[in-house]
Design a protein that fits this description.
Blueprint lengths: L4 E10 L2 E11 L4 E5 L6 H8 L7 E6 L8 H5 L2 E4 L11 H12 L5 H7 L15 H12 L6 E5 L7 H16 L3 E5 L3 H7 L2 E6 L2 E6 L1 H8 L4 E6 L1 H10 L4 E4 L2 E5 L5 H12 L3 E7 L3 H13 L10
Parallel strand pairs: 3-7, 3-8, 5-6, 6-7
Antiparallel strand pairs: 1-2, 1-4, 8-9, 10-12, 10-13, 11-12
Helix pairs in contact: 3-4, 9-10
Length: 310
Amino acid sequence: MGDAVRVQGLTKSYGELNAVGGIDFSVPPGRVFAFLGPNGAGKTTTVEILEGLRKRTKGEVEVLGLDPWTQGRALHHRIGVIPQEFRFFDKITPAESVQYYARLFEKPADVEALLARVELSDKANARFDTLSGGQKQKLGLALALVNDPEVCFLDEPTTGLDPHARRAIWEVIRMLKADHRTVFLTTHYLEEAQLLADQVAIIHQGRIIASGPPDAIIRQYGRRERLVVQGSSALAEKLRASLDLPVRAQDGRIEIAFREKADIFRVLDAIEKSGLPWSGFATQSDTLEDVFVSLVGKMDEGVLKPAGVA
């Protein structure tokens, strides 16, 4: 079986503006893929092209082996979509919504099972306009699953949700992966992408600037793991003089980057031998969010070029 999603040289232009400037990526089946980028980066344009809602200018695009624009009708029966800030008819109930979608797709649907899957059973007969924001998103996700999709496009599915509701959506995404379905996720919550995604692509100014497994991106672009203590600038100076490790100090916070775990003991020994007061003790590693902010900033400054550009 080929890739669930394949994009090669994708370009979308509006006159002289390149909203998407020739990007490449692929998503194997059964993976959670997170497509990340700041507002205006080209995320929504790319996703709408993949869903068959927008025509591309150039390039090759396949979802489940189909061209989304020319074979959209066949594709729409095999994918599920939840748009950002899902909206529906005010007076309809979740149970009626699932039944309605099932008729549209001409597929039988187990209403109780679908609503239970997204933890919405207790609101099966409540009107849509009485649901909370989180409950509306859960219903949107249930409707995206009505046609038993092979690929699910989830656009900001947890935006504005409380922590409990967010985690409920996360569990559904994990279940979709366990069922060997492909999830194409866009989100502004970088910790969500780091936690859930097998593969990440970061887009900015219409170009991919980094891609790969989250841990690999962090290793490639992130800073070294470091020890953090609270102490004076005098302590920082003594550590610089006694250690062959980078020492950074600001506002009473001292960070000492280390190359290997054994360096921690050398740092602690140097701190104790300094005779100066200190407090706190923690190791810290960069997160996907740290790397994202750094990469976007460097590209804005012209320091970083898109991936694959010499």
